[in-house]
Amino acid sequence: KGTAAVLKAVETLRSHFDFDFRLLQGLDHEEALHVLKGCDLLLDQFVIGTHGVASIEAMAFGKPVVSYIKPEYLQKLPREFPIIPATQDDLADVVAALLAAPHTLHEIGRRSRAYVEKYHCADAIALQMRDIYEELLNGTGG
Known about the structure:
By secondary structure, the chain is mainly alpha-helical. The protein has 7 helices and 3 strands. It has helices at about 5-15, 30-40, 55-60, 70-75, 90-100, 105-120, 120-140, and strands spanning about 40-45, 65, 85. Strand 2 (about 65), helix 4 (about 70-75) and strand 3 form a beta-alpha-beta unit.
């Protein structure tokens, strides 16, 4: 998922910023959630090009997320999609900008929580599934 790129970016950033970093590998789900709840920022993945469950869980805690999102996927997402896009090449620069303006993290985290509440709550997902089933039953689904 781009661990080498993350570790490289962290080493670059350490020469300019003082921060704690924790690699979330080999943790059970409960332990990972505990770490996410206490973090200020999640660096999720930088290969696949879409966000995953860890991003959604971090956003549910009101945490900003940086991840690689393919441009064609990004164009299809809601306007208020809060994940901060970065590639392996610009990851250090993107995170440096966030670390240089820590006051922005709270606002991004607030928007992240609102996004999860709007698009990932059980009611929203049930409505999306209903619409998909109706399209399939009506023969209008793709």
